[in-house]
Amino acid sequence: MILDARSIGGVETQVLTLSEELAICGHKVIVISPNKILENKFSKLNVKHYTLPVSLTLERKNIGNLPGFLFSIFRIIKVIKNENVDVIHSHAPSSSAYLAYTVSKILKKPLVYTIHGAHPIRFFWKFFKHVGSKCNAIIAISEEVKDFLCSNLKIENSKIFVIYNGINLDKFSPMEGADISKDNTKKLVHVTRLDKEKVEATLKVINATLEIVKEVPNIQLLIIGHGDEFENVCKTVQEVNAKLGRKVIKMAGHIEPEKIPLYLHCSDVVIGAGRVAVEGMACGKPVIFISSCGFGGTLTEENCERIKYHNFSGRGCKSNYNSKDIAQSVIKLLKNPTFYHYSQKLSVRVANTLDIKKIVRQLEKVYNIQT
């Protein structure tokens, strides 16, 4: 598997989870990324990791890294030959995807792409429009991504397999009594990456607390995540806490992925999108689906298919939302026990369909087709 891994986010966590289960199933998994921190995490899973400069951004300050990036082609070839690799699996959209394609053609090895989203990366999509039909298989992590590839890039439908990102239900599962607070505090947990692309949603969550405390005074909001906007978010949190007269909102900063279950289990409501939303569901928590692209509210039988189609992101629901929408969803959950428990049960039911064991069985079928 080859991935950019400039940070440790949803894609990297998914590759860790996939690799662990593949190794348990007896497969030999080799991971190549530029992130040295991942080396220790993979070694604990009995997975070999090679740290190579396979990631490159088009910013002027990074142009000097281009020679090393291109030279990685030869290094990847050496790894693949030494490790007797059968299938190259690239996680995209990413710059490492270009290297994966080049190496697969040189070595005539089957190439599988997992497309993790329809992000507005023009250069990659121009590249993929031409090479997508030439790779052996494409895995779309949602029906939304599949439809994007078919309609926008004209990728042949038969090459695309929809396999949602899976989770380890041994680590993420309901824990009886975990959401009972000794001081009766209602705990909200918001997990995100605090960068320019996502910070707008977080700011709306922060401002929502001003409305929530009017109906549910005993709340506490914990924000987990880091990024370029971390300091700016901290200032906003200080301002809102000052208005509220107490420390309602706390900033946890970066938390290692393996420690996230502890925080989810101790929460009453999870606010987020994508992987953390599914992890919250698996832990038996009502989830409010929110991202910079949209607001999905709480999971119900009526919106379940739409939420899943858009990979639990809130896209395709309400795009022009505000902090009051968030506040109303939280208040409804915390003041209506019947609705709260209904959402809990539905969340667990949906999350169970994404068991990593089931996901790996699907992935193995794609690998077997190629080899």
Structure, explained:
It is a single chain. The protein has 371 residues and is of the alpha/beta class. It has 2 domains: 10-166 and 355-370, Glycogen Phosphorylase B (Rossmann fold), CATH 3.40.50.2000; 186-354, Rossmann fold (3-Layer(aba) Sandwich), CATH 3.40.50. Helices cover 45% and strands 15% of the residues. A 6-stranded mixed sheet has the order 9-8-7-10-11-12, sandwiched between helices. The chain has a 4-stranded parallel sheet with strand order 3-4-5-6, with helices on both faces. Helix 4 (96-107) links the parallel strand 3 and strand 4. Helix 3 (66-82) packs across helix 4 and helix 7 (199-215) packs across helix 12 (323-335). The protein is globular. It starts with 9 loop residues before the first helix and ends with a helix. The model has no long low-confidence stretch (mean pLDDT 92).
User: Helicity, in percent?
Assistant: 40-55%
CATH architecture of the largest domain: 3-Layer(aba) Sandwich
Give the CATH class of the largest domain. Answer: Alpha Beta
Strand coverage percent: 15-25%
Number of strands: 12
Query: What is the CATH topology descriptor of the largest domain?
Result: Rossmann fold
Give the overall shape: globular
**What's the average pLDDT?**
92
Biggest beta-sheet profile: 6 strands, mixed
What kind of assembly state do the chains in view correspond to?
single chain
- The order of strands across the largest sheet is 9-8-7-10-11-12
Structural class: alpha/beta
User: Radius of gyration from the CA trace?
Assistant: 21 Å
Unreliable segments (pLDDT under 50, ≥5 consecutive)?
none
Number of helices: 14
List the secondary-structure elements in sequence, H or E.
HEHEHEHEHEHEEHEHEHEHEEHHHH
**What is the number of domains?**
2
N-to-C CA distance: 16 Å
CATH superfamily of the largest domain: Glycogen Phosphorylase B
